[in-house]
Amino acid sequence: MKNLGQMQKMLQAAKDMQEKMQRELAELRVEGTSGGGMVAASLDGHKNLVALRIDPEVVNPSDVEMLQDLVTAAVRDAAAKVDEETARRLGGLGAGLKIPGLF
Questions:
Q1: pTM confidence score
Q2: In what order do the strands lie in the sheet with 29-34?
Q3: DSSP secondary-structure letter at 1?
Q4: Residue 31 has pLDDT above 90, yes or no
Q5: Which residues pair with 53 in a beta bridge?
Q6: Of 28 and 90, which is predicted with more confidence?
Q7: CATH architecture of 26-94
Q8: CA–CA separation, 10 vs 18, rounded Å?
Q9: Which of 16, 18, 28, 90 has the most CB within a 10 Å radius?
Q10: What is the 8-class DSSP label of residue 40?
Q11: CA atoms within 13 A on the CB side of 101
């Protein structure tokens, strides 16, 4: 029965860490850019777009495709940075749990 108590403590610790990570991800803000910073997209840690900045110089009604490409590139850049930050943070949290076969 002692092992069962230890297992419950480990599971509670994992749940607490998961909840902490979810809160941190919701608060995280990462910016991706394209066009030399002419377009910037800010995402939260769940990859929700929270802000978009477009320099007026790149707004050309006769070349909407270029602007669309710049926005897409900025969002992708931000999403990649969210992935990097999430992996970095998860690496640190996982070290606290000593679950055989997982870490």
A1: 0.73
A2: 29-34, 39-44, 49-54
A3: -
A4: yes
A5: 40
A6: 28
A7: 2-Layer Sandwich (3.30)
A8: 12
A9: 28
A10: E
A11: 0
Residue type present at position 2: K
Residue 90 pLDDT > 90: no
What is the rounded end-to-end Cα distance, in angstroms, of the chain?
A: 24
Q: What is the DSSP code (8-state) at residue 88?
A: H
What is Dmax (Cα atoms) for the chain? 73
Tokens representing residue 44 in the block: 């939260």
**Cα 70 to Cα 52: distance, rounded to the nearest angstrom:** 11
Q: Quote the tokens at residue 89.
A: 């943070």
CB-based contact 77:34 (threshold 8 Å): yes
Asked if pLDDT for residue 57 goes beyond 80, the answer is yes
Contact 32, 43 (CB under 8 A): yes
CA distance 41 to 75: 5
